[in-house]
Amino acid sequence: MSRKIRAAIAGVGNCAAALVQGTFYYRNAEEDQFIPGITRVRIGGYHIGDIEWVAAFDVSKKKVGKDLAEAIFESPNITPKFTDIPPKLGVPVSPGPVLDGVAPHMKEKFDPLDREVDLGEVVDVLKESKADILINFLPVGSEEATRFYARAAAEAGVAFINGIPVFIASDETGYWDKFYREKGVPLVGDDIKGQLGATVLHRTLVRLMYMRGVKVEETYQLNIGGNTDFENMLMEERLQSKRKSKTEAVTSILPYGEDLRKAGKVRIGPSDFVPFLGNTKIAYIYLKGTSFAGFPVTIEAKLSVDDKSMFAGAMIDAIRGTKIALDRGISGILPSVSAPFFKHPPIQAPSDEIAMRWFEDFITGNRER
Known about the structure:
Number of strands: 13
CATH class of the largest domain: Alpha Beta
Mean pLDDT: 95
Radius of gyration: 20 Å
CATH architecture of the largest domain: 3-Layer(aba) Sandwich
Strand order of the largest sheet: 5-4-1-6-7-8-13
Structural class: alpha/beta
Number of domains: 2
Low-confidence stretches: none
Number of helices: 13
Order of helices and strands: EHEEEHEHHEHEHEHEHHHEEEHEHH
CATH topology of the largest domain: Rossmann fold
CATH superfamily of the largest domain: NAD(P)-binding Rossmann-like Domain
Shape: globular
């Protein structure tokens, strides 16, 4: 059993920049150290510092061919440098397929490659790098490109962690679960959940109202930000899966959540791109309900966070949980790793506390998957 986790990443954007730096920021963390956003320093024998980067893929001419240590700070990324990392990681960014990974209005900013990349090229890179896991951090709306990488990972015998709202692990047909079982590797996702992001806060407020007997009548969550993720999401047609993922993460708390959605009483998702906000995301959350004797209850909250660092801790834990599954020879979807860290997992836990209990039980061997 390898004591290192050989990780590859598709999409060298702001999320990748925060994640790669995060694995170095806590590389020498003490065993009993409390780390915000991380469940524990060591999981299943794996320290945060055991994650090593072995391959990366992108479509931008500004990043392809450069070392990953350089590419994570290349334009249009704006994630700041917050820790020292080696000037060279020895990991050149390989070309990936463009497909639908670049929205028409983002072509000038991303400057994509003008050549085709076939499945075999990506599979070969994954095999040659001896990657254990491929993490997908493509732009929202990259439906075809995500399915391409999901297939490439499985064909290469590599586990796949889907960090964006394309329904792979949570595919209702069961196609990807079956495919990954046949290939003998784990599948985790979908749509990474931030440490204390809008979805987590919204779920908590909804659960609080429900737990205290308040009938939720209507709710919205409006998000604005200034990075390329929000600029990319200016195209509403790229947001179908994103809205579904965030909405179901919230409405699943309520037994009547689907009725609220069908009645048009729920609106959740990205709202606008405000360039000067940079990587800061601001979420406005509103809930209206009915309490005892029909009296109204209203909650309004505002959350401001660094958008991309929020995801790094959750992904570090998901990576280590996935490697445990690899070590145990488990294939197909991993509900216990997906539920606590992703907005749209294959099985949505009744609460975030229960989801985390599933994860704890899995890593200790008390839950099969």
